[in-house]
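Saturday, quiet lab. Running sequence design on the structure tokens for the scaffold JK sent over.
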């Protein structure tokens, strides 16, 4: 019948010319069906979104709960809180120790009583630190300070006693070590919870 193949848009235009009423009703039906389909699709999308949101909310709630528990556990003190007594004891002992070390150019016998009294005070500081719960770090620093086999305060006094007098150069270097060790003890104490007010 036709020599050429009919193109789809030609077929549509022929159809529109001869059947215009059908197109309007088809459009209305399609729009109604499309609206119903769109409504169903939208409600399905909303349900799927709600399910995703609910599962995301559950996951988020689990993450928040885990983070809260982690913070709670990690914020519990693992070291003793600040002690004003320990802080003042360390500062006083630092000043007195460095001053007494300056006297090491003179014979030990002249300062033996002062050395003994200072050693008793540093032993008390160790016992005070050692007796506090969760205070192992401070107690260890005091133990090292009081160890005669170390090169800090007790070791300095042991050498002074065995040699009777010490040179000025040795005293200056030893004071630097002892001073830094006291600073570490003082810094640890002032850095504890509640020690922020110490300046």
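Result came back. Writing it out in full:
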């Amino acid at each position: 019948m036709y020599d050429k193949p009919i193109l789809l848009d030609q077929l549509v235009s022929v159809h529109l010319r001869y059947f215009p009423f059908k197109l309007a009703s088809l459009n209305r039906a399609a729009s109604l069906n499309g609206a119903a389909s769109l409504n169903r699709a939208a409600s399905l999308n909303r349900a799927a979104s709600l399910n995703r949101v609910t599962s995301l909310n559950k996951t988020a709630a689990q993450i928040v709960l885990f983070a809260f528990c982690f913070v709670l556990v990690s914020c519990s003190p693992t070291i003793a809180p600040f002690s004003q007594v320990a802080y003042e004891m360390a500062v006083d002992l630092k000043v007195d120790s460095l001053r007494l070390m300056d006297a090491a150019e003179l014979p030990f016998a002249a300062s033996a009583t002062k050395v003994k009294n200072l050693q008793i005070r540093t032993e008390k500081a160790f016992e005070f630190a050692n007796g506090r719960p969760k205070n192992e770090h401070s107690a260890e620093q005091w133990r090292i300070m009081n160890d005669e086999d170390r090169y800090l305060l007790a070791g300095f006094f042991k050498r002074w006693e065995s040699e009777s007098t010490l040179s000025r150069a040795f005293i200056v270097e030893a004071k630097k070590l002892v001073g830094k060790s006291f600073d570490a003890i003082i810094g640890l104490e002032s850095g504890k919870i509640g020690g922020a007010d110490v300046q």
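Notes for JK: The mean pLDDT is 80. Helices lie at 8-18, 20-75, 84-101, 112-131, 136-145, 153-163, 168-190. Ask whether to fix the surface positions before the next round.
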